[in-house]
Every structure is written in C-alpha cells, then in structure tokens.
Specification:
about 90 residues, mainly alpha
C-alpha cells in the first residue's frame, strides 16, 4: 500500500466510476429505481470505507498493513458487484 491518501483517492475514483456508469445506464433507458438503489449503495459504501480508513490510525502499527489490505479487497469486491449489477440491468433491457 502506497499511502492512506492514495487509498482514499482510489475509493473516491471507483465510487465515481460506478456513479458515472449508472448515469450512462439511465441513458439506455434502464429502470431508474434499480440504478438509484445501486448508486445509493455504492455511495453509502464509500462513506463506510472512508470511515474505516480513518479508523486505521487506531489499529496497532503491526496490524495496519493487513487492515488496509482488507479494506482494499472489500472495496474491489463492492465495486465489482456494483458493476456486475449495472451490466445485468443493461443486458436485461
């Protein structure tokens, strides 16, 4: 892990990528309720990830690297799930 600052930027970048794709899905005429639910979930997740990153200061120094790796892994799984849901919505229509 390079830095906490870079991790926060990655969280924001991936969150905004999902939001942008959600807006693109609206252009294809997908169901806006389902898309808004996905986007809201991702935004809520972003807030949780940012709180978890900030809470890393309280983790023992020996365990911080593993702590932040877990956050990265959870972030990737969350974003991948959101992109998969958006992809399924577009394919369904």
């Amino acid at each position: 892990m390079a830095s906490v600052r870079k991790l926060k930027k990655d969280v924001d970048y991936l969150t905004f990528a999902v939001v942008g794709d959600g807006l693109s899905c609206l252009a294809y005429g997908s169901d806006s309720d389902e898309i808004s639910e996905i986007v809201q979930t991702v935004i809520d997740g972003r807030n949780v990830f940012r709180m978890r990153i900030n809470a890393g200061k309280n983790v023992a120094k020996i365990e911080r690297k593993a702590y932040y790796r877990t956050i990265c892994k959870d972030l990737m799984l969350s974003v991948d799930e959101a992109f998969s849901k958006l992809s399924d919505l577009v394919q369904k229509d």
